[in-house]
Amino acid sequence: MSSFSAVLQSEWTKIRSVASTLWTLAAAFVVTVGISAALCALINNSFKNMPPQEQATFDPTLSSFMGMTLGQLALIVFGVLVVGTEYSSGMIRTSLAAVPRRGSFLFGKLLVATGLALIVGLVTSFVSFFLGQAILGDRSIGIGEPNVLRAVIGAGLYMAMIALFSMGVATMLRSSMLSLGILMPFFFLISNILGAVSATRKVAQYFPDQAGSKIMQVVPGAMGSDPVPYSAWGGFGIMALWVLAAVLGGYLVLKNRDA
Question: How far is the CA of 11 from the CAs of 17, 87, 135, 220, in angstroms?
């Protein structure tokens, strides 16, 4: 197997033949859409009881993606499993024997898995948006309004980047359990806690999830959130740097260590 197209085909076969990886993508869709819809319904019913500041900065677009806080965890699992199963099953030795050029092997795997995550992410973001706006009723916003389409597409890009970041980390650590043990608490607890504490908020706003999630925000200071010193695309750029560092680190580990 020498051509890059053959590597892509091989990686696609691996991913679709492992049921757990496909189930995690399905879970990302169901969890994000389901929780976002439920929270939109809750907001719509309790809007009059919200503080005046939150009413004034209400962002119907961002509300459609509130379930992504949990939905992204499924994409983290997907990214870790795509790489981690190579090591846990011992398949990595066979894979590298078939594709001796480790850069082609890694980037073929990342390209296929990220493309799949991007498709699922875009479907999830559009479904979450239109369902959320239907629930919000009079408080909804059209996709043709300024910056809304950017936020919807950005939500899909965000999900793909989370998966790619997880694959980079898993390649560096070469263990599914260790990768999940670091990534899940970080994105589910540590980032949110540090972002809520005033003493650490200025540092946490540069974390990949907090910076990247600004791409989904249309109203500045949405829902009473603190302002940040970068734009929506600037935040996404910060996230891209984190992802680039993780992928580069994974490549260097794969290149310089024995399988």
Answer: 10, 15, 39, 41
Q: What angle do CA 95, 254, 160 make, to 5 degrees?
A: 85
Under 8 Å between Cβ of 72 and 159: yes
Q: Which of 147, 149, 152 is nearest to 127 (CA)?
A: 152
C-alpha 61/C-alpha 148 separation (Å) is 7
Do the beta carbons of residue 4 and residue 104 sit within 8 Å? yes
Question: Per-residue confidence at 140, pLDDT binned at 50, 70, 90?
Answer: very high
| Model confidence pLDDT, tens digit, residues 72-95 | 999 999 999 999 989 988 889 999
Q: Which residue, chain included where needed, has tokens 């540092």? A: 203
The pTM of the full predicted model, rounded to 2 decimals, is 0.93
pLDDT at 2: 53
Q: Specify the DSSP element, H or E, that contains 178.
A: helix 176-185
How many whole angstroms separate alpha carbon 70 and alpha carbon 245? 24
Instruction: Please report, for residues 33, 91, 127, 139, the alpha-carbon distance to residue 134 in angstroms, rounded to integers and kept in the order given.
Output: 13, 46, 11, 9
Q: Decide if pLDDT at 228 tops 80.
A: yes
